Amino acid sequence: MKQNFFFRLWFYFRNGWGTYFAFIFAAINTLTVTYFLAIDNYPFLNSLFPTFLHYIVIVSSIGVPVLIGIGYLHFKKSLAYSSEADIVTENHPYNYRILPGFNTEVVFPLYLVLSEMMIKWSKDEKLNDDDVEQLNDLKDKIQKLLKGEMIGQPRKKLNSDFSEKEN
C-alpha cells in the first residue's frame, strides 16, 4: 500500500509537470529567449517585431495553428501514434484481465450463462429455474445500465485519493 501511494504521487507529479508546468514554462522561456537574444539584436527582425507583445501575438497566431496541424498529423497520419498505442496495449495490465465494472457484473457473466445454456441445449437438456433466474438477474442489470444507472459497487477509496480498492 505504501509503495502504491508513492507511485501514485510520482504519476500525478509527472503528469502535472509534463502537461502543465513544463509546457507553460517552455513556451514562456522560448518566447523570451528568442526575442531578447535574437530579434532584439537584429534591426531587420526588430522592425518586424517592434515589441515583445507584437512578437508574442504574431508567433502565437502562426505557431498555434501549425502545432495543431502537427498534432493532427501525429494522431491521424503518422505511424508514431499507432506505434505508441501498440506499446501501451502490449503493456496494459487489464488486457489480460476483465475490466472492473459492467464487464465483471454483466458482460462476462452473461457470456458464461449463455455458454452454459448452449451446452445444455446441445445435450437436449432443459433450462432449470436457477438458469432462468440467472438470466433474469442479468437482464435486470442490463436494463439498469441502459437507463444510465450503476450496477455493482464502485471502487471504494479509503481515506485519500491514493488508496487501494477495499475488498
What can you see in these coordinates?
Mean pLDDT is 85; it is low at 160-167. This protein has two domains: 2-94, no CATH class; 98-146. The protein has 167 residues and is an all-alpha fold. It is built from six helices and no strands. It is elongated and about 90 Å long. Helix 3 (52-77) packs across helix 4.
Salient structural properties:
single chain; 167 residues; mainly alpha; 2 domains; 6 helices; 0% strand; elongated; disordered C terminus
Number of strands: 0
Strand content: under 5%
Number of domains: 2
Uncertain stretches? 160-167
| Average pLDDT | 85
Please give the oligomerization state of what you see: single chain
**Would you list the SSEs in sequence order as H and E?**
HHHHHH
How many angstroms does the end-to-end distance come to? 14 Å
Largest sheet: none
What value does the Rg take, in angstroms? 28 Å
- Approximate helicity band: over 70%
Helix count equals 6
Which class do the helix and strand fractions yield?
mainly alpha
Shape: elongated
Compact description:
This protein has six helices and no strands. The chain has helices at 2-38, 43-48, 52-77, 79-91, 102-122, 129-146. It has two domains: 2-94, no CATH class; 98-146.
Q: How would the blueprint of this fold be written?
A:
Layout: H1 2-38, H2 43-48, H3 52-77, H4 79-91, H5 102-122, H6 129-146
Helix pairs in contact: 3-4, 5-6
